[in-house]
Amino acid sequence: MFKSNLILKFSFFILIILILSLILQFVFNAGITSVIISSVIIIIIYIVSLYFLNTEVVRPMSIFNFFSKEIYDTDKQNDTDDFEEKLTELNKVNELLGEHLNKNKYNDDVNDIFYSLQLTTERLTNELNTAKIFKVNRNEFLGNVAHELRTPIFAIQLSLETLLDGAINDEKVNMDFLNRAMKQVNRLKVLVDDLIAISKFETGIRMSKRYFNFNEYVKTIVAEMRSLAENKNIELKFDTNLDDETQVFGDSESLKQVFINLIDNAIKYTAENGLIIVRLTDSEKNVLVSILDNGIGIPKKDLARIFERFYRVDKNRSRDRGGSGLGLSIVKHILEAHNTQIKVESEENKGTKFEFNLQK
């Protein structure tokens, strides 16, 4: 567009020169030869100026446009290296153009265009940085998924190979290897279910929120989880000061996942004969939910990271207890979708408390 404007201005300039030549010839009775020579000299000077302007300004801008198009054609998420290489070239052109404009004076149109180019370069640089972070997170996530899948698959493979090698005919050990394989199959199922869940929440699943009676709802979930606690002789208590008519606003199905994950976690990390309390506390606008246990607790250095995907305080011990490493991350996503945040307090060998508010 800038180049088109220059051509238009040049055509208009030639027309002015021709008109002035006619005026000189007829009004001042100048010689036709001297008028033509003067006109040609002026035109040559103008053409030379345009040439330098084209070389120093228009051409760099054309290069800039070329690299801009190349960058936008690049898949930034899959090829950040190619994107960065083109952006580097774009920055070089931008710097040369800036240096030239600082040494020479041009009208506001040229300066405005240069300013727009600078803004475009800055925006592309920001996009590149975002794409780099996304790429690192994606690679880390895929690496974690591969690692979590490999362990149970290898254990299943080992059990089946042992059975095929003859253990299937040995009544003393065949059921043991089948049970080992079944345990790992269940672990795979939990992992796949959690991966599907977290994928839905991270891509912004739509919540089906409504008002529902909260006291009976939580009481039912606690009752469903009690048998799991009793297998370890753990007491699971429900403590509430809500009346049965108290309602909260939320997605009951998703919130059930929050309670199951937190209570299941508490059972896993509380020793036999321990105590877990699910407490509901009424306030003016919210209901405070607290889940407390007197289990092994979480070291202070790990507290800030326990909601990250696949983060484990003690990797070997966590896998032995059957967790996918995604449970608390799913909890965090669900509560954020309810415009609330989960808090955690913990002390090693004394216990852990998770708390969050829900809108009434």
Give start-end ranges of low-pLDDT stretches: none
Query: How large is the radius of gyration?
Result: 36 Å
Number of strands: 7
Largest sheet: 5 strands, mixed
CA-based shape? elongated
Content of β-strand: 5-15%
Give the proportion of residues in helices. 55-70%
- Oligomer kind: single chain
Structural class: alpha+beta
Cα end-to-end separation: 59 Å
Helix and strand succession? HHHHHEHEEHEEHHHEE
The strands making up the biggest β-sheet line up spatially as 2-4-5-7-6
Query: What is the overall pLDDT average?
Result: 80
List the SSEs and their pairings.
Blueprint: H1 2-27, H2 32-73, H3 80-103, H4 108-164, H5 174-202, E1 210-213, H6 214-230, E2 235-240, E3 247-250, H7 252-268, E4 275-282, E5 286-293, H8 300-303, H9 315-320, H10 327-337, E6 343-347, E7 351-359
Parallel strand pairs: 2-4
Antiparallel strand pairs: 1-3, 4-5, 5-7, 6-7
